[in-house]
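Protein in question kept in full:
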Amino acid sequence: MAEEVIPEQSTPFGARVRKRLTEDTVVWLTTVAGDNTPQPNPVWFLWDGAESLLIYNRPAAKRLVNIRRNPRVSLNFDSSGGQDIVVMTGDAELLDERASLTTHTDYLEKYSAGIARIVGDAAKFVEAYPVLARVRLTRVRGF
């Protein structure tokens, strides 16, 4: 499915998309509030190498209410002066599993420096951000 959604790695755009999904640490997740106002939020994420991203959340995050109401979301990376534009759309779901120290260790490793800076250690992080959301990408566009 990833090849259907994410452009071929052999293309310049496909290679850039994969590089950003692998190397960037922040993506803007936009959900829609009850009054239909877009609500963009910078979030940490982990790409699964195929068609979805994993995002940890605080239980009181308003985006969780928005996702429950309307799972259609968009994600985009910061651009470099209007260059390297990547915009993705997808369907978000809140997972039944809770964050733990033994699940998604690659996420905790990717953000270890940020976790240390914000809450001190991984145990405190998964306690503060226990709600997992997965965004299944349905479209990728940009230039």
Notes: Residues 2-142 form a domain with the Pnp Oxidase; Chain A fold (CATH 2.30.110.10). Residues 12-23 form the longest helix (12 residues). Strands lie at 27-32, 38-43, 46-47, 52-57, 72-76, 86-98, 131-142.
